[in-house]
Write a structure and sequence with these properties.
The chain is α+β, with helices and mostly antiparallel strands. The protein is 16% helix and 33% strand. The chain has 2 domains: 10-57, Signal recognition particle alu RNA binding heterodimer, srp9/1 (2-Layer Sandwich); 66-127, 2,3-Dihydroxybiphenyl 1,2-Dioxygenase, domain 1. It has a 5-stranded mixed β-sheet with strand order 5-9-8-7-6, covered by helices on one side. It has a 4-stranded mixed β-sheet with strand order 1-4-3-2, covered by helices on one side.
């Protein structure tokens, strides 16, 4: 059934134009032109491996969890690049997650979390190759 179907995160945003600027300028994602008319209340961006992410305009909502994760090959490089564009990474000191310089290492995985322009929590994630 759905085993071969692509999945795309749909992320609520209050200010679609502000969010579009963040995803395009700060994160470097390419908008899908035919689906990027703000009058429709949605914006779709291309991500890696033919995946998409969709933003949709709605009244304020608050998610206290990660809404989308980007797989990267070098998390330290990505963190530094995003910090250079003004992104602030979350710092956690909990029994299950502790970050150092914004990055948590758990077994063979490294992850870092940050918020988009609308307060949604995003993650960048690297599998450590041995």
């Amino acid at each position: 059934m759905l085993t071969n179907s692509p999945i795309r995160p749909t992320i609520p945003v209050v200010d679609l134009n502000r969010a579009k600027r963040f995803y395009e300028t700060t994160l470097g994602l390419e908008p899908v032109p035919e689906n990027n008319d703000t009058t429709s209340g949605i914006a779709i961006f291309e991500c890696g491996n033919s995946t998409l992410i969709e933003l949709y305009q709605r009244s304020p909502s608050k998610a206290d969890h990660t809404v989308a994760t980007f797989e990267v090959s070098n998390i330290e490089e990505e963190v530094n690049m995003l910090r250079g564009k003004g992104v602030n990474f979350e710092e956690y000191d909990m029994p299950e997650i502790k970050t150092q310089n914004g990055i948590a290492t758990q077994g063979s995985v490294k992850a870092a979390w940050f918020k988009d322009s609308e307060g949604n929590i995003l993650c960048i994630h690297q599998i450590i190759k041995k």
